[in-house]
Amino acid sequence: MCDEKARENTMYTHLLVPLDGSERAERAVPVAERIARTTGGRITLLQVINLPMPLGAPYDAAALSAYSFEQTEAEAASYLARVAGWPLLNGVRVETEVVTGAPAATVLDIAREKQADLIVICSHGRTGATRWMLGSVAEHIARQSLVPVLILREQGAVPAHPHPDPLQPMRILVPLDGSLFAEAALAPAAQLILALAGPEQAALHLALALPPYEMDRENVPNTLALDGARAYLMRTADRMRGTYPQLRVSWSVTSDVDVAQALLRVAETGDEVGTGPGSTSDMIAMATHGRSGIIRWALGSTTERVLHGTKLPLLIVRPAAAAQQDVPAVRPTEASQPPHEVDAPWPALF
């Protein structure tokens, strides 16, 4: 039975899980099951059959003659049927799909055709019938997908069960930079953590990284960056509490010349300057880019560096405006009110 509160606010009603026959790729199945069971959603298990053509010889006759499409398709269909029959998935609506084509492009096409609203994929898996390297495929999908993509890392945690510490809620960290582009990850992150937490407590943590000189009041006494960052995070946290009252929302401001490293430190070791006691996060959610705001960092490249630097699951969201390419991000001072009421705490920064 799905959790009614999670179902009310969910955007995740159809999950697409690409598989390649490997156990590593199958780590996505329990995560998708937990989300679908909580929200009452359904799952499509997809296997893409990639043509076994040697690099540099795309029409190699010998390779094609030794390859049986019918047998490969039958094996893939049988494999997906076995996964769909796992006891874990009892009571969850599961469909299977076998398609031949280029892995990343085909996954994106199927997501679009079937109107999936979340892709759950592992970072790689190089065995099985399709023999495709899911690591690079996952990153390509995350860059191009119009729907959120949840990437699970090999050797990383699989958030498919209650939090191991019963005293700590399952928590997702969302890095912000003051732009609406970065804020595009807020709702998908909130709904994801609520779905994964199920009936248990869920938490959302907002993190913002400032350059060190903007944190230094002694040398830059007139700077308003730190005060502005805190005010912005408090307003955003209040807005999220109003929208998702079942969420525990906290925030922190950190400082580092390397934004990606600062965010990883907050996620993996705990808070810096913020609200509540220091606590680690179970996953991270980021928009693909945000080119304006109080710290002016390219969120696209930062997202990729965070992906490569952490073993935590990472939810990647491509804002609708970015998907239409390339509408400039809205500065906080230009945003409509409410909910983006801005008392101009950053006049020196714009």
| Share in β-strands | 15-25%
Shape from CA axes? globular
Note the total helix count.
13
The order of strands across the largest sheet is: 3-2-1-4-5-11-10-6-7-8-9
Q: Would you write up a description of this structure?
A:
With 350 residues, this protein is α/β, with parallel strands linked by helices. Helices cover 36% and strands 19% of the residues. It has helices at 4-9, 23-26, 28-39, 61-65, 69-84, 103-113, 134-144, 180-183, 186-197, 225-243, 259-269, 299-309, 320-324; strands at 14-19, 42-49, 93-100, 118-122, 149-152, 170-175, 202-210, 247-255, 273-274, 283-287, 314-317. Strands 3-2-1-4-5-11-10-6-7-8-9 form an eleven-stranded mixed sheet, sandwiched between helices. α6 packs across α7 and α11 packs across α12 (299-309).
